[in-house]
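As a warm-up, study this chain.
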Amino acid sequence: MSPAFRSNLLQIGLPVILALGLFMPDWAIFLGIISLAKGLVVLGLMLLWRTGLVSFGQGLFYGAGAYMVGILPQYLPITDALLLVLISAVAAGFLAFALGFLLRRYREIFFAMLCLAFSMIFFGILVKSESLGSTDGFNVVETSYLGFVPEEPIVMQRMLYITAAVVAWFACLFVNRYLGSTMGRLSRAIKDNELRVEYLGFSAKRAVHFKIVIAGTMAGAGGALAAIAIGHVDPEMVWWIQSGEFVFVTILSGVGNVIAPLLGSVVFEILRTFAIEYAPQAWQFVVGGCLLAVIMFLPGGLWSLIERSKEGKDDGNSSR
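Now compare it with the structure written out below.
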């Protein structure tokens, strides 16, 4: 897919998302916020995936961002949603930076399991901490938006939707710019032959470390948005099933474009919502069946459909 096409998608992305927010029903607004929040986590996973790394522990940073939103207003007079998201993202990024010194040494299944281990350690700490609500968690304080506190719940949701859209759009711009840089282009090289990267004079471990930090930062931002939208945080946000869900969406969406994680997250949330609504006793079967279908018929994820469509149009134009 050409860089010009990717650039055009990013340019129209934010206006389209914001315009959709004006016409979506109330229930869809909440679904959109959660989709954008989890799409940020998957966007970070996409960076690791392109490097040949799979993390089953992104719930650690997702939960860290969520709990930061709940804890911070209790000690500091900070209620602005955008500021809370930014601080939570930075906090999760610092956590990823600290753990990255160990994680960057491992590859393949060892990397995945080590990420999972750290996530489960954090889960155990939260469950045992009565001051953090133990297994029940605790509620998040009401947030403001540039000093404005909406009185009606739907207005507050739409304001949060706008905040989530802006954060997701800037995250996509950053990742797109990063993938076009020298460090970003090393992803495929590290995946194929890490030793050759070292011979070229680049440090593969440092490159992996930086990607871990980016992925952790975005997961923290996603967790913060989800916590504000739900109004509650609990240890289930760190549980391994949550991390597995992020991997599921990464496979579903594909890694061909920075827009893919957001689209895949929207599709997954819609699929799960309607599966629970119409098949509450078998919704896991429906979702799992869809994943198997994607793996069998679309190994490149849902985004490969858009790539095929674009290539078909280019071939048609060139044949004229």
